[in-house]
Amino acid sequence: MKKNISVAAALFFSTAMSAQVGINSTSPKATLDITAKTTDGSKPEGIIAPRLTGDQIKSADAQYGSDQRGAIVYALAAVSAASTKTANITGEGYYFFDGNIWQKIGFGSDTSIYKGSGSLSGNTIVAQNANTLSFTGTAVNAFSVDGNTLSVDDANHRIGIGTAAPSVALEINNGSTAGAIKIADGTQALNKVLTSDGSGTANWQYSAMPPGAVIYTASGTVLNGFLECNGAAVSRTTYSVLFSLIGTTYGSGDGSTTFNLPDLRGEFVRSWDHGRGVDSGRNLGSLQNHMLQNHEHDIPTPTGGTGSGRAAHSDDNGTNQGGNNNLIAGRYYTYSTGPSGNYGTETRPSNVGLTAMIRY
């Protein structure tokens, strides 16, 4: 009782002297200035507002009007059946009366977490635990990072990277800079393409034209991803996949940093025998010179008189017999093709020249 009288006296004298009240302070700095009594943790400090359940606060609805604006209470529990004034008392916490209804301190009637534009003062982490975090909207650029670095088109259910108005479900717009997409899952390699299985799971695979495959083009321009089969020495590092496949089969380059490509210019391609025995003794990639198989031609043979022949020929003395059809017994004759028809310095079939290229 003495303590209550002493406090009351202190309040009276403090109020009378300065119109300000200090608790545990002789020089209050505000209308009410409360200074902690202890700082060593030996006693609890602080201010405790009236503690009432939501139903108890509701029972005093008639007592709260404009004169009670700013009153603060601590609700121990939510109101069971809310009245107009207690509609916001949905859980334990501090509430203040705004002259009409009770508002939860820290949130008010607007439960939105966004009050306007602002800046973070430091790194921020949201611990969701087992809770979900979702956004709803109806705008084209409903959610974005720097405008178009990442844009969610909620109106059309699309996502844009590099664009604030994606035209398909996922649009990546990298402007004129190559390399808009990078997917590294351990299966990636030079010249692989992204493919999927029956369930839609994608990984990197070589296309139907894998490294080392040779194709021909009707153009003199070498296609992207290919090198002309011209026997050139190329980098073992730049074309490492191709080097791992053909090695130095077609030439060792400088012996350390380069290797040679196949040289198919002006050549026909023959499938490697590979042990069949039709073209035995050949190594993969070896060059084979042109050849005519041994054969015979029928030549009229004189029987003590003259024979006949059609081809121009020369005798064993080297004398060109021209169109002479007479054959002299005891001599042999050399016949040559011509002078009309297709003849020249090599034996070849009819052919078309195309550019040979190898996939790297």
Can you put this structure into words, describing what you see?
8% of the residues lie in helices and 20% in strands. Among the domains are: 2-34, no CATH class; 51-104, no CATH class; 143-172, no CATH class. The chain is mainly beta. The longest helix has 17 residues, at 2-18.
Q: Secondary-structure map with pairings?
A:
Layout: H1 2-18, E1 21-23, E2 32-34, E3 51-52, H2 54-59, E4 72-75, E5 93-97, E6 102-104, E7 143-145, E8 150-153, E9 158-161, E10 170-172, E11 192-196, E12 202-206, E13 214-217, E14 226-228, E15 233-235, H3 240-246, E16 258-260, E17 313-315, E18 320-322, E19 333-335, E20 355-359
Parallel strand pairs: 1-2, 3-4, 9-10
Antiparallel strand pairs: 4-5, 5-6, 7-8, 8-9, 11-12, 13-20, 14-20, 15-16, 17-18, 17-19
Summarize the structure.
With 360 residues, the chain is mainly beta. The protein is built from three helices and 20 strands.
